[in-house]
Amino acid sequence: MPVLVASDLDRTLIYSAAALALTMPDARAPRLLCVEVHEARPLSFMTETSAQLLTELGDTAVFVPTTTRTRKQYQRINLPGPPPAYAICANGGHLLVDGATDQDWHAAVLARLAAECAPLAEVQEYLTKTADPLWLRKQRIAEDLFAYLVVERELLPEEWVKELAAWAEGRGWTVSLQGRKIYAVPKPLTKSAAVREVALRTGAELTLAAGDSLLDADLLLAADRGWRPGHGELADAAWTAPRITALPERGVLAGERILREFLKGSRVR
User: Fold this and answer.
1) Which of 9, 29, 82, 189 could form a disulfide with 58 if both were Cys (CB 3.0 to 4.6 A apart)?
2) 98 Cβ partners below 8 Å, 6+ apart?
3) What pLDDT sits at residue 151?
């Protein structure tokens, strides 16, 4: 019976230059591999050691990238190792099978959202009305499923984020602040639901998971074992739960540690 490994990508396995956290002397910094290029510029990285570990993992477990990225954003990433048979995009809104959207899964997600939470248009209107141009840089809709803002973090009032979270809570939505992005996501739109579907399809008897943000909490809770790095929303909140290991590593070296834990967990049954 296969082991399923479901992992968030950004700031869990792959890192922007700003998120690498290379605190060691320059001469001791790890060699890096670029795994994403956007508009002809290198955007995301992992260590060369992480690349080797991920390749090994692809040979020993069902590795499922599990991201809030849109399909287009996900497809920019060129991960080492065998191409994943399954990938989860848009926080569970799209299940990719051999790179193609499973339309039945997507239709079921849309039906759940229509039944259980306020419509996207209402949330979009609130964001447009309350976001201040002083700190707002971009406002985006992702896959017609959720919204996010790109902000100047230093100018963003903490109180505004709290007010948005409280407003969204009453409408069946959740808010997550990740770096320069604020996500507003419907509560029924979860990574964990899509991971459970992949577990059913593959017959996996063990699920391992990792993630760093509030949007990964449900994924970690649904796994048999989970890991979170020493950075990110979950670390900032000192979030923990049974079967979840809080790692001390921060930045790109946390990604390396997570992959070591995945390999160890998939081999010791």
Assistant:
1) 82
2) 85
3) 97
Measured CA distances, 97 to 65, 69, 110, 157, 252 (Å): 12, 16, 18, 41, 28
- Written as six digits, the tokens of 117 are 């939470």
Task: Report how far residue 225's alpha carbon sits from residue 244's, in angstroms, rounded to the nearest whole number.
Answer: 6
Residue 269 has pLDDT above 70, yes or no: no
